[in-house]
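thought: fold this chain, then report.
action: predict
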Amino acid sequence: MKNPVSALLFFFFVHFQTFCQELPVEITSLVPNHYVHTTYQLIQNNPFPSNGLIVSTSVGIVLVDTGWGLEQTEKLLAQIEQKLKQKVVLCIVTHAHEDRIGGVKAFQQRGIKIIGTPLTAQKTVAQGLPAPEGILPQDTTFRVGDTTIQTYFPGAGHTDDNIVIYFPNSKVLVGGCLIKSYVAMGIGNIADANLKTWKQSVNNVRNKFPNAEFVIPGHEKWDNLTSFSRTIELVEQNSKK
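observation:
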């Protein structure tokens, strides 16, 4: 492109498109009545995925974790309404980082119950963000309609408040950011991590739920059970630094 003005205009057009690109929101069928929700934020100018779970129960939709931020959560709730034709009755958050609690306000505005552990609620308030109700025991089993839900705190790892959520009927485990994807090339955000206990916490989850057939990590791909071992590899690599 010989004309310098044309070249400059082309440069700004391409970069404006990149800046204004629409970040996707995805709902992917997993097993009957269970769907992975994936929302995105830009990391180093590239869309990076964050996963949660949608479960259709006999009384409405249960979500594990909000979308990544308020805008993505708004889009997610709109898609659920459009595609699944069922009201959302509950959201459970797994720890107090934006990719898990960034959309709390969207649920509160709609009058949808959103809960976390007392520690997660405290940590969210400390960040000056809208907080979930801190009423969820770290380790408990309860039912929503016809669906059994187990929550479990395995110990500190990615954060000191990270819990996992298990659905025994479907054998789906939501590991949140405690569990890294089997394709993960790095350990990610460790600002609030405990690298000394993370490995044992992962093993605690694996021992607690040996029958899990699907393990949904906080980010990236979930279709392989080697996410446990990959997480431990990444923790060990970073512990040596």
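thought: worth noting. The first strand starts at residue 25 and ends at 31.
final: tokens above.
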